[in-house]
Structures are given as structure tokens and as C-alpha cells.
Amino acid sequence: MTGWLIIAGLGPGAEAMVTPEVSDVLEQATDVVGYIPYVARVAAREGLTLHPSDNRVELDRARAALEMAAAGKRVVVVSSGDPGVFAMASAVFEALEGRTDWQALEIRVLPGITAMLAAAAAAGAPLGHDFCCINLSDNLKPWSVIEDRLRHAARGDFAMAFYNPRSASRPEGFVKALEVLRQECGPDRLITFARAVSTPDQRLVTVSLGEATPEMADMRTVVIVGNSATRRVGRFVYSPRSVG
Predict the structure, then answer these.
(1) CB burial of residue 142 (10 Å; 0-12, 13-18, 19+)
(2) Number of structural domains, the chain?
(3) Does 88 lie in the same domain as 135?
(4) What is the dihedral of CA 210, 216, 222, 223, to 10 degrees?
(5) Which among 6, 12, 17, 226 has the fewest CB atoms less than 10 Å away?
(6) In this structure, are 52 and 105 located in the same domain?
């Protein structure tokens, strides 16, 4: 097979945060596949076909990309951030199951800077010790699973980073998440709302859980909750590496 498929992360938004490795494969690609706003970040050029699609067709998108690669195309499947973090890498490998012909393709995953890590860097070092990352969307898993993971993470005293905290179609989820966090962590725990990190619209706000309101988050926001030792130093927030 002469085609290949690369699953690439475009970083959190700023062009400077796209890795040189990803920029190089985009220059070689014949086809770029991805969610509409992510494909829009790839510059059009002669010899490149862009294939934007809706956010709820990940498996269809993955299969289409694999079919093009099997036909000899040089295909890049793009995601924001890192493709292995709540993104397209999992969908591509799911589409590979049971297809030994596609499994013979040259397939690579190229990492990217996640929104979580960009947000943490902008805030200081709130993920400086053990942490976990939870997607608060209940589109692909029930709320009961989300709540269970929230409670266990809080009881384990992890710092926590949350993706997809609050959308127009499901505003109640983040209300419930804040209630759980206050129950488990108390009102004084620091919480950072990092919106549109690395773009001109970037906005960071750090408050206590007692002061936090659901309206502080939307789908462009990464929310970071510190552990019991997380504290402020000047305008920064950090979690010390020593415990006890």
C-alpha cells in the first residue's frame, strides 16, 4: 500500500503550538479529514482536499479516512489538542477492528499540546502533582459514570482537569459537577476557568469552589480544580510536588 494515514493534534489554538512534525505531514498530505472547525485551521493549497464533517460522526470520519489511505491517498486526520485525548485516535483504532486489510496501512499518531496542558501552563502549575482528566460530556457515557469518577478523583485528592464542562444543550451537568465537588472538596478548594487558551480570546479566572458559578464555563473552557495543597503565589496557582 502506498497511502498512509496520520492522526495529528493541532494544539489548543495558537499556530505556534502546532508541532513542526505535524506541520510537515500537513504539507505532504493529499487529504485532511476532521471536525469542521479543526479542518478550517488547515490552510488550503493546490493538491490538498479538505474533508470537514460534523462532530457526531467520528467513526464514519475514521472509516472514510482509512478508505482514502487504502486507495493510495496521504491522509491526515486532525484533532485539536492531542489526538489521543478525547479525540480522533480512538475512533480510528476502533474503525480498524476486524479490518486486517486496513491494519496493514502505515498509520501513525502525532502528539499535540493539549488544551489541558496549555491551560495549566497559563495558570502556573496547578497540575504539578498527581492529577486526572475527566470529560464532563454525557454524550458518550451516562452521568452516573461521570459522577462516580468525580467523587473517586476528589476522594483520592487528585488535581482534576475537566473538558467539555458546559454546553447550551446540557447546562445542568456542570451545575451537578460543582455540587459534587463542593461536597467532596469543600468550598475553599481553588478552581481555575481557562477559556480559549493560547488565542486572542484567552481568559483565566481562579476562584474558590464556593465562589464558582456554572456560567463561568462553556465548551471553550478547560476547568482545573486543585488538590488540597494547591495554592496561590502572586498571580499564579500551583500544586507543590511534595506531599505531607
Answers:
(1) exposed
(2) 2
(3) no
(4) 0
(5) 17
(6) yes
- Angle between helix axes 58-70 and 88-96 (nearest 10 degrees) is 60
In angstroms, the CA 69 to CA 76 distance is: 9
Tell me which residue has cell 480570546.
201
Closest to 69 in 3D by CA, of 38, 46, 99, 39: 99
Question: Are 151 and 97 within one domain?
Answer: no
Backbone φ and ψ for 38, nearest 5 degrees, come out as: -80, -40
Q: What is the pLDDT of residues 220-234, one digit of tens each?
A: 999 999 999 999 999
Full-model pTM = 0.91
Determine the length of the chain. Answer: 244
Contact yes or no for 100/66 (Cβ under 8 A): no
Give the chain as a 3 state SS string: CCCEEEEEECECCCHHHCCHHHHHHHHHCCEEEEEHHHHCCCCCCCCCEEEEECCCCHHHHHHHHHHHHHCCCEEEEEECECCCCCCHHHHHHHHHCCCHHHHCCEEEEECCCCHHHHHHHHHEECCCCCEEEEECCCCCCCHHHHHHHHHHHHHCCCEEEEECCCCCCCCHHHHHHHHHHHHHHCCCCEEEEEECCCCCCCEEEEEECCCCCHHHCCCCEEEEECCCCCEEECCEEECCCCCC
